[in-house]
Amino acid sequence: MVKEEFKFSESKVEYASHQLSLYYGECPHKCSYCFVNNYRKRGYSWAMGELRVNQKAFSIAKEADTSKVTCLVVSFTNDPFPISYNEDVKDQRLASLKILLDILEARKIPTKVLTKNAQIEDLLDFQQDPYKYIQIGFSITTNPDNAIMRARYEPFASSIDERITALELFQVAGFKTWVSVEPILPNTQILDLLYSLNRIGVEEIWVGKTNYDPFLSKVYNWEDLLKQVKFMQKQIPSIQIKHELASYEGKLALQFEEKLENFENKLKNRNNEITLGDLLLAIKNDKELKLC
Fold first, then answer.
1. What whole-number distance in Å separates Cα of residue 38 and Cα of residue 161?
2. pLDDT in tens, 156-188
3. Integer distance in angstroms from the first to the last C-alpha of the chain?
4. Which end of the chain is more exposed for a tag (fewer CB within 10 A), N or C?
5. What is the distance between the alpha carbons of residues 268 and 126, in angstroms, rounded to a whole number?
6. How far apart are CA 275 and CA 37, in angstroms?
7. Where are the alpha helices (H) located in the chain, listed in sequence order?
């Protein structure tokens, strides 16, 4: 009998070489812009149906080769701690997450947790000592006072206020923290947001744009927003700019938009397995993609 080989999934995001999903199925946060929505529409089983634990995640964490892992994200395809107001369900989900993180910590795998669920602060009741190899991170998509817009696009996720409060609790407790500012929702005051995150003491702030929602992607003048972020970056070294946003500097902006539109039009007319992440990487490297 051939032993099953366990591997981490590779990531094309610049701050992570690999990712690991703790859950499959439909995330209860129901963010309208989530890229997984596209896979659900196309019938991918891992993106469909009732939320369920990916039981292989624990075996992968224990056995996967780590020689090429520079940073692991938990996770991109589903929130690693899906929100629930049923105490029993919440406790079960917290236990699953802690088991996974304990395995990754024991193996000394540099890991970034990425969630929109402020209930993760309950982890502090069980994890007295800060992790050495794990950063607790939140997706922060707008300012706290832009609550109506947040509720429109992230209807069942924790509020921005709740996420920032939880972030502060982890920071005060000595945990390593990080934030992904992406996507950037309409009416976001980016300078105020970045300043407030820095004031908390967040160690890494990654700023991107909006990639998977046709309307949101056209809300901003991204070249202008990039200038604002670069202005703040000079004062706050913890700010990092993702490739998708950095591509909007100067004359590259128009070229990027034209290439992206061209690729998107090709995808609409063909049946293929290429994701938008593949498109963005190809655009960045100025390569052509083969569409079947």
1. 29
2. 999 999 999 999 999 999 999 999 999 999 999
3. 35
4. N
5. 48
6. 12
7. 36-41, 56-63, 87-106, 147-153, 160-172, 190-200, 222-235, 243-246, 252-268, 276-285
Cα separation, 80 vs 97, in Å, equals 7
**Structural domains of the chain, with CATH:** 9-249 (3.20.20.70), 251-292 (no CATH)
Q: How far apart are CA 139 and CA 137, in angstroms?
A: 7
Do residues 187 and 157 touch, judged by C-beta distance below 8 A? no
Q: Six-digit token pair at 74?
A: 């938990």
Contacts of residue 57, defined as CB under 8 A and 6 or more positions apart, other chains included, come to 20, 21, 22, 100
Q: What is the pLDDT of residue 262?
A: 67
Encoded tokens for 72: 């692991």
Q: φ, ψ for residue 234 (rounded to 5)? A: -65, -30
Hey, which residues does 240 pair with through a beta bridge? 206
